[in-house]
Design brief:
single chain; alpha+beta; four-stranded antiparallel sheet; 2 helices; 4 strands; elongated
Length: about 150
């Protein structure tokens, strides 16, 4: 997701008012429902979800912004996308200490852009590890989170 000018200002303000505390893997799933037949052309489908809440549990007298980032990728038959060969999913919780008052729209813009970017290196490594251990065909995970995927 590339922020527009309005979101960019909100993200800058939120970045100054937040401090990263922790990134926790809270769920992961891998399944390989069927093997890929030789000659099958594959396509990748992506999943990305972001939810946030201001948590009443205070740290150092300050509330926490808690962001849940749900990511996934699956390999499907390019000509028949309902045929799934493998999928990898991982959900992360990212905690930020709120250092100053922030509007909800600033928290939302920050969560959807920055929280995903904070989690992205962990996600990339998780996918690479599962692909290696599962002897799956190569899955492309870009260096940056990029656009919000449907």
């Amino acid at each position: 997701m590339t922020p527009n000018n309005d979101n960019e200002a909100l993200i800058v303000k939120a970045t100054a008012g937040l401090e990263l505390q922790d990134i926790t893997l809270v769920r992961s799933q891998y399944d390989r429902p069927q093997d890929v037949a030789e000659g099958t052309q594959l396509a990748q489908q992506q999943k990305r979800g972001v939810q946030f809440v201001v948590d009443g549990h205070e740290k150092d007298g300050k509330p926490l912004l808690r962001v849940r980032v749900d990511l996934g990728v699956r390999l499907v038959d390019k000509s028949e996308s309902s045929v799934v060969f493998a999928f990898i999913e991982a959900d992360y919780i990212v905690d930020y200490r709120i250092k100053s008052d922030l509007q909800e729209e600033a928290l939302k813009a920050f969560a959807e852009f920055n929280a995903v970017h904070n989690v992205w290196p962990f996600w990339r490594q998780h996918v690479f590890d599962v692909v290696d251990k599962g002897r799956l065909p190569r899955i492309e995970v870009p260096f940056f989170a990029g656009l919000k995927l449907k």
